[in-house]
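URGENT: need a sanity check before tomorrow's submission.

F., can you look over the 4-diphosphocytidyl-2-C-methyl-D-erythritol kinase record below? I want to be sure the sequence and structure line up before it goes out.
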Amino acid sequence: MKKYKAYAKVNIFLKITGRRNEYHEIVSRFMRVNDLYDALSFVSKKNVQAKANEFKIIGDFDCTTKQNTIYKAYVALKEATSSQALEKLMRTYAIAVEKHIPAFAGLGGGSSDAATYLKMCNEVLHLGLSLNELAQIGLHVGADVPFFIYGYESANVSGIGEVVEAFDEELLAFDIYTPEVQISTPQVYKAYRESFYAPIDGFAADELKKKSSLDILNELDAKEANDLFNPALQEYSDLEQHYQDGYYFSGSGSSFFKVKEEK
Ligand SMILES: C[C@](O)(CO)[C@H](O)COP(=O)(O)OP(=O)(O)OC[C@H]1O[C@@H](n2ccc(N)nc2=O)[C@H](O)[C@@H]1O
Ligand SMILES: Nc1ncnc2c1ncn2[C@@H]1O[C@H](COP(=O)(O)OP(=O)(O)OP(=O)(O)O)[C@@H](O)[C@H]1O
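Structure tokens as predicted:
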């Protein structure tokens, strides 16, 4: 069976521009991590231990099936399309995931799996959904899902994650370090809102959106580049000891990254 790659991402910069209900509006440069991905495939239930009526995910997860973003993507797609073929597909096949992207890492692993699953279903069932439609469905699963639906190597992402604009630049290679600190994204956003709330204006956001990722990383330090770094340090005191000079913080953490040095 064909294997589909679900890539990780890093946030080169992430600035808050305002609030929207329980969410925060952001402006962020997302870049794909080309050498870090999960691999997803459909596997016939004849070859695995699974009940006919069970939604089966095979892989190394520390959450229940109902909590898995892949299952959430299935539910969202079923609601959006009422596709009988989708239900039939998941009665016949399990979804196998070779998991390489660490969880609680700020690398978008769960969101990328969900996006890839939506695209796989669209392809094998010939649902004919556009990327915009898939992104809208995916946004219900997670704010990072639309970026992975579009599949750009680099993009400016805004709104709460639903506005994705390709950014034309060279894809960078990264050294990534993921400390074993289990960070909760809602907790970090809450700490930002309560203790660090200082949204940037539209002019500053536009300036950042124009700059290449290399220029951003040369000009800003880790705290300037990511508004969630200070709140994450406040909430998770263990994080400080893992921070090394020259590294940047991805998303709500816990991963740090820097551009790979050429050998
Ligand atoms: C930190 C980032 O990963 C950066 O790429 C994203 O902004 C978060 O994306 P995500 O993990 O897919 O987030 P979701 O699962 O949609 O949201 C989890 C929780 O994070 C908070 N949240 C998330 C995204 C956002 N723009 N503002 C928020 O305040 C909300 O409390 C939300 O309930
Ligand atoms: N498909 C999935 N892959 C990994 N974790 C998942 C998945 N679905 C649900 N989870 C659960 O979601 C939580 C964090 O998952 P995820 O891998 O998306 O990390 P993250 O660091 O929150 O990503 P982000 O960059 O979006 O902040 C964990 O509790 C994990 O068990």
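My own read: Residues 11, 14, 22-24, 26, 28, 111, 142-144, 160-161, 185-186, 189, 251-252 surround CDM (ligand 1) (CB under 6 Å). The chain has a mean pLDDT of 96. If you see anything odd, call me.
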